[in-house]
Amino acid sequence: MITYEVNLEVAAALRAEYLAWLQAHVAEILRLDGFEAAMIEEVTDPAPPTGHFALCVRYRVRDATHLQAYFDQHAACMRAEGIARFGEGFRAHRRVLQPL
Fold first, then answer.
1. Are 48 and 18 in contact (CB under 8 A)?
2. Residue 12 to residue 15: CA distance in whole angstroms
3. Has this prediction a pTM greater than 0.85?
4. Are the beta carbons of 2 and 96 closer than 8 angstroms?
């Protein structure tokens, strides 16, 4: 099992619109083969910069092969959708975590 984590910093003015979009985005990713679960959490510590809120989305992925298939076949298009809609109103940083 792999954890694919996406950390987001979003302009507070976009909160309602971004959260609605994110719910649909996560649901779309969960329809991909190998993605088994996801959790969206608000980050409270460390506190985001003034005028922003922070989120962490953690996906549980069956294995590295399925995650790589997402990167190769879907990630660029799905990331572009968020950029097209919200522009510079958000930033994303990603990590891949494997159990020891």
1. no
2. 5
3. yes
4. yes
CATH number at residue 90: 3.30.70.100
What are the helix (H) ranges across 1-48? 15-30
Predicted local distance difference test score (pLDDT) of residue 15: 97
Whether the bond between 48 and the residue before it is cis, its omega within 30 degrees of 0, is no
44-78 pLDDT, tens digit each: 999 999 999 999 999 999 999 999 999 999 999 99
What domain count does the chain have? Answer: 1
Eight-state DSSP code of residue 49 = P
Q: Which domain holds residue 47?
A: 2-97
Separation of alpha carbons 73 and 64, rounded Å: 14
Q: Using alpha carbons, select from 10, 3, 79 the residue that is nearest to residue 34.
A: 3
Q: Which amino acid is at 82?
A: G
The per-residue pLDDT for 62 is: 98
